[in-house]
Design brief:
Elements: H1 15-88
């Protein structure tokens, strides 16, 4: 904003001229603050939208983590069962047949 300082060219300004000049300065500051406030409100609206989107992503990812945790747990149980079968060896009725008697 261009400040009108022509009235100061003839010497000391009157109190009224000083008040008018101060009013112009305040109007300029007010316009700048209004502009900054408007820009800040737009930025806040964008940040709220971004935050909302991220909150939804967090909910989805937490759901995936829960499912994957259950899957890992189930697979761990299956793995343990398979290891236990391997360590105990084949059952005597492996294949559905009783063991053959030894002839000697």
């Amino acid at each position: 904003m261009i400040i009108d300082d022509d009235s100061f060219s003839l010497g000391m300004p009157t109190p009224m001229e000083m008040l008018e000049q101060h009013t112009l300065l305040l109007e300029g500051e007010n316009e700048q603050l209004q502009h900054d406030l408007s820009r800040a409100r737009k930025n806040i609206a964008k940040l709220v939208a971004i935050n909302h989107g991220q909150a939804e992503q967090i909910i989805q990812l937490n759901s995936k983590i829960e499912r994957l945790t259950w899957d890992v747990s189930r697979l761990h149980v299956e793995n343990t069962e398979l290891k236990n079968k391997l360590l105990s060896g084949c059952s005597p009725t492996w294949g559905g047949k009783p063991p053959e008697p030894h002839h000697g």
